Amino acid sequence: MxxxxxxxxxxxxxxxxDDGRWIDVTVLEAGPCKVVQRKTTDRDGYEAIQVGxxxxxxxxxxxxxxxxxxxxxxxPTRDLREFRVPKDSELKAxxxxxxxxxxVGDRVDISGxxxxxxxxxxxxxxxxxxxxxxxxxxxxxAPGSMGQSADPAKVxxxxxxxxxxxxxxVTVQNLxxxxxxxxxxxxxxxxxxxxxxxxxxxxxxSIKGAS
Amino acid sequence: MNLLQEVEQAQRRSDDALPKFNxxxxxxxxxxxxxxxxxxIQIFEGVVIARNGxxxxxxxxxxxxxxxxxxxxxxxxxxxxxxxxxxxxxxxQVRRAKLYYLRDRSGKAARLKAKGxxxxxxx
Lengths: 211, 123
Description:
The complex is a heterodimer of chains A (about 210) and B (about 120).
Chain A: E1 5-16, E2 22-30, E3 33-39, H1 41-44, E4 48-55, H2 63-72, E5 77-84, E6 96-97, E7 107-113, E8 118-120, H3 122-126, E9 163-165, E10 169-181, E11 186-190, E12 200-205
Antiparallel strand pairs in A: 1-2, 1-12, 2-11, 3-4, 3-6, 4-5, 7-10, 7-12, 8-9, 10-11
Chain B: H1 3-11, E1 26-35, E2 38-52, E3 60-67, E4 70-77, E5 83-90, E6 92-93, E7 113-114, H2 119-122
Antiparallel strand pairs in B: 1-2, 1-5, 2-3, 3-4, 6-7
């Protein structure tokens, strides 16, 4: 497994293992993806494959995109992502990637875009404790002190404050593959995966876990 | 049927293999316990006080018994392969889907009428 695969988060459920325990799993529809472009050091400065996922009608694709897909001979897709591959990788444009690249027990890193929470306060966004709810207190959910006084006479950069929360790319590392069903493009991953159901998910080989 | 339902469907027992019992029944749950290499069957006997999850593969049922004056409740996954069988000892006649009120009762007040019970039978 030199590269990953793109997929869609379907939802969570639980499955029983052979010895009767149950584990919580996330169901992913992984692939099939087509390689749209093979990037090489000579031409692009690095080695990668560009992969498309989620077929769309030709009428929905923009003209420059249509040309890009046509040069690879693959139908246009909604999403394009890149995976780094070793220099000797034999993948070329038009090749298909399926869930078969994974085996049960593999460790994977999964990236997705988290659910947006809007403008969130310091309690929700950074886990601040807040103040007492009552008993004469007027300090409830405010962020509190901004720092020191005349020295340094400023608020430090990266001070944890209210702001937009969520809708960021998040990677969860070292998740376990529970089931692979290439005929249904199905991957079951132990644990949870960032993002809403139906969101685009990148499944990559784990950089930490042995696989 | 979407992929999630397909995954769940595969986890379910077939309808024939599904243990048949209702809320209010006194049952013996034969539960397989794996201790290292060894396997044994443990029997938990009590009243079914709730069934949750309907026809989903995540359905559970709750069995309550009173052991040494202490109420004990165990929740079993209906479709777990570890639940070997559920033996119905006595069918209870109840008017609720959830018998949580039994938790507040003890002794005689915590009894349930048997199904088909009539006053004449009592004598």
